[in-house]
């Protein structure tokens, strides 16, 4: 029994799901009660900013059926889907290769469905991908563009990190993730406590990220896993009264430590960072504590220990108490998290509007290297008409039982 348990713990998320009998093609109940398709609310409205009037836009996307023909499995009930090699899960379906998606005849449909899947599941993993940096950038751009459904033109592109140093090979809009150099070392406050590292990418920007794409090409012999947590599930587990309290609040996000690092390293802060609103050296923004993901229409918790400093509407001690609880709420509920064990050339794509993540710095002096591309989305907002993920799934289940 103990040996069997140890073997299961050593499996990567997708394989563990397969061993438990839970690995299967994309599940229909995530889409409609009876088949892959679109479930929309024609009356869905959203506001472009918490202070602006509601504006009717397109309904959120719930359609990603073009991906159902590829080998895949859910990593956990709440977060994570894996597209592994078919042999890893004994699937007759072919493997999904992201490079081929970019040139397929139905490329736009595949990419739109991929973005929708990522926004529903939070993070999606792809094994053994031959995706070069130019293709990685193209995929990030097109995911942001094709999933855009707000009633105004998208003006943001790829993010340029404040302490990014441009290279001829990668450009300024690629972040080097390197255990020795680059962005991973820019936060010189790194702490041995992994719980201190939970964050969503670049929430200190006025226009933060929608999607991030990370490919690791160099790995330590052991360790270096990444964990993601679901902001949807974190919201759903709060009491209704506490949710209502949080929905009236906004929080300050700040990354002054990048300014300090730039000064110590003798480099300049990048003052134009991928969107007209992301300019200057002040790395501070104010966002709602609970936000709506425009792709799904779901509410998500939107604070993180790395960048969220205080809640605007509360006294300092009140703010500290609330944020401390929310940070622990994410870090201590392991069943709203997924842990991914990397292999060479694996790719992870996640939605920063509804997830947080943290690396595991347990590999000593070994090398861990890769490239991350970050697409910029919209100014965060809370739509009062939006629902929670749990409400959506329960309504879907009820509709299915009544069919």
Automatic annotation (TrEMBL):
It comes from the Eukaryota. Keywords: Dioxygenase, Iron, Metal-binding, Oxidoreductase. InterPro entries: AtsK-like, TauD-like_sf, TauD/TfdA-like. Residues 104-370 form the TauD/TfdA-like domain. Pfam families: TauD. GO terms for molecular function: 2-oxoglutarate-dependent dioxygenase activity; metal ion binding. One of its GO terms (cellular component) is cytoplasm. The keyword Iron applies. Belongs to the TfdA dioxygenase family. PANTHER family: ALPHA-KETOGLUTARATE-DEPENDENT SULFONATE DIOXYGENASE, TAUD_TFDA-LIKE DOMAIN-CONTAINING PROTEIN. This is TauD/TfdA-like domain-containing protein. The lineage of its organism: Eukaryota, Fungi, Dikarya, Basidiomycota, Agaricomycotina.
């Amino acid at each position: 029994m103990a040996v069997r348990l140890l073997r299961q713990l050593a499996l990567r998320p997708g394989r563990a799901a397969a061993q438990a009998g839970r690995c299967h093609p994309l599940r229909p109940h995530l889409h409609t009660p009876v088949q892959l398709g679109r479930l929309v609310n024609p009356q869905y409205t959203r506001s472009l900013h918490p202070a602006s009037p509601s504006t009717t836009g397109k309904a959120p996307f719930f359609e990603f059926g073009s991906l159902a023909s590829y080998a895949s499995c859910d990593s956990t009930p709440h977060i994570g889907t894996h597209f592994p090699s078919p042999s890893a899960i004994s699937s007759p379906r072919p493997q999904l290769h992201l490079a081929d998606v970019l040139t397929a005849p139905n490329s736009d449909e595949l990419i739109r469905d991929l973005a929708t899947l990522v926004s529903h599941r939070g993070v999606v993993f792809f094994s053994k991908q031959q995706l070069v940096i130019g293709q990685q950038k193209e995929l990030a751009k097109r995911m942001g563009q094709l999933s855009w459904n707000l009633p105004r033109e998208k003006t943001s592109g790829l993010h340029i990190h404040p302490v990014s140093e441009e290279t001829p090979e990668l450009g300024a809009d690629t972040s080097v993730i390197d255990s020795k150099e680059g962005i991973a070392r820019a936060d010189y406050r790194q702490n041995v406590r992994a719980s201190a590292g939970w964050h969503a990418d670049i929430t200190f920007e006025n226009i933060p990220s929608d999607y991030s794409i990370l490919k690791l090409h160099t790995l330590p012999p052991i360790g270096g896993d990444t964990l993601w947590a679901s902001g949807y599930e974190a919201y759903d587990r709060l009491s209704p009264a506490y949710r209502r309290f949080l929905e009236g609040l906004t929080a300050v996000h700040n990354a002054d430590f990048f300014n300090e690092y730039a000064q110590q390293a003798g480099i300049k802060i990048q003052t134009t960072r991928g969107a007209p609103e992301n300019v200057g050296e002040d790395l501070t923004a104010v966002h709602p504590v609970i936000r709506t993901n425009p792709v799904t229409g779901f509410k998500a918790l939107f604070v993180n220990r790395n960048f969220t400093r205080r809640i605007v509407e509360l006294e300092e001690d009140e703010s500290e108490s609330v944020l401390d609880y929310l940070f622990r709420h994410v870090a201590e509920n392991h069943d709203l998290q997924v842990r991914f064990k990397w292999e060479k050339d694996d790719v992870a794509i996640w939605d920063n509007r509804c997830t947080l993540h943290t690396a595991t710095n347990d590999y000593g002096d070994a090398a861990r290297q890769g490239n991350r591309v970050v697409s910029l989305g919209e100014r965060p907002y809370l739509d009062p008409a939006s629902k929670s993920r749990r409400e959506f799934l329960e309504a879907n289940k009820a509709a299915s039982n009544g069919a």
